[in-house]
Amino acid sequence: MYLMLTEEQELIRANAREFADKYLEPIAAQIDEESRHPAEVFEKLAEMDWMGIPFPTEYGGAGADFLTMAIICEQISRSCASTAFTLSCHTAMGAGPIYRFGNEEQRKKYLPPLCTGKLGAFALTEPGAGTDAGAGTSTAVLEGEEYVLNGTKTFISAGPLAETFMIVGMTDKSKGARGMSAFIVPKDAPGFKVGAVFKKMGLRSSQTSEIIMKDCRIPKANLLGKEGEGFKIAMGSLDHGRIGVAAQATGIILASLEESIKYSKERVQFGKPISANQAIQWMIADMAVALECARFLTFSAAFRSDQGLSFTKEASMAKLFTSEAAMHHASKAVQIHGGYGYMKGFKVERLLRDAKITEIYEGTSEAQRMVIAGGLVR
């Protein structure tokens, strides 16, 4: 299969690259150093209608598709992986579950703010439940016309910033994962608060925190889907989230390639640019091959999602390959830069730190292999 982008998608890719060059490239190193969320950039993303890319215009979205979102996230990640991840996580797992599983009343109430500038977040992981999401201990008990939520969620992307959260809790502990339900929780719900904000090795301008619920009360109408469907909703959201991570990792590979080509032409040793050395050329060639493979896997998974086809295995393949390739080739980019590549102020140092987490969140590489193999051998 040959996946060819439409003229409109090619134009969007060019626009996204221009946007990243203008608004992110000049500040990316600074916001990384300061661990600062670039609110001014997200205001501009909202102006571009890129906060609700794959959602219908009737809900405030751009009326595009998930492939378009992947295209935009790749180009943004080329300049700032933190911004790309915050955007993709908001879209795929903050707003996405409301659109895919919510009723019409929920869509009309919550999607327009999320599509026009407010951030959404996804809260599944707990201190004792990561890959084994079914081991979560957060509870949701129905009391009259309200659910009462108790528990702590951790590693929540955009936790300190989001206005609306998709949270999974146990409504029937006796059923394990089948007793999990999903809820829409606004940040101003009684008993809801942001806990510790984490300091990270990479993606430093993407905010990550704990979420604490202590007798947090929300209306019964905020149940997403039906009771017992929380695990299914969460796994479906992660499938879309993995495409977002794959686009982010692809952008890191793209940046590694471009920075390596540029530096290798400028750096002179033994009277010639190091780009003339076969060892450097081979590393650059391998990056170029990995970029094309990563882009195809990512876009193919997004395309299958847009066509209503199964894409769980394909999303895991894309996430697995792109994340491991991003880590490998960001490391090679540092190697090409030599001692300078290890220093703050050189972009490749940040690329390497940002690449590592792509092998961990939205399911580790080991978990992706489990998903892929499970779809092949059963």
Structure summary:
With 378 residues, this protein is α+β, with helices and mostly antiparallel strands.
Under CATH, the topology of the largest domain can be stated as Butyryl-CoA Dehydrogenase, subunit A, domain 3
By CATH reckoning, the class of the largest domain would read Mainly Alpha
CATH architecture of the largest domain: Up-down Bundle
- Structurally, the number of domains stands at 3
Structural class: alpha+beta
Gyration radius, rounded: 21 Å
Provide an overview of this structure.
The protein contains 11 helices and 10 strands. The protein has 378 residues and is α+β, with helices and mostly antiparallel strands. It has 3 domains: 7-115, Butyryl-Coa Dehydrogenase, subunit A, domain 1, CATH 1.10.540.10; 120-231, Beta Barrel (Butyryl-CoA Dehydrogenase, subunit A, domain 2); 235-377, Butyryl-CoA Dehydrogenase, subunit A, domain 3. The chain has a 4-stranded mixed beta sheet with strand order 1-4-5-8. A hairpin with a 2-residue loop joins strand 9 and strand 10 (272-273). Helix 4 (66-79) packs antiparallel against helix 8 (278-306), helix 7 (230-266) packs parallel to helix 9 (312-337) and helix 8 packs antiparallel against helix 9 (312-337). The longest helix has 37 residues, at 230-266.
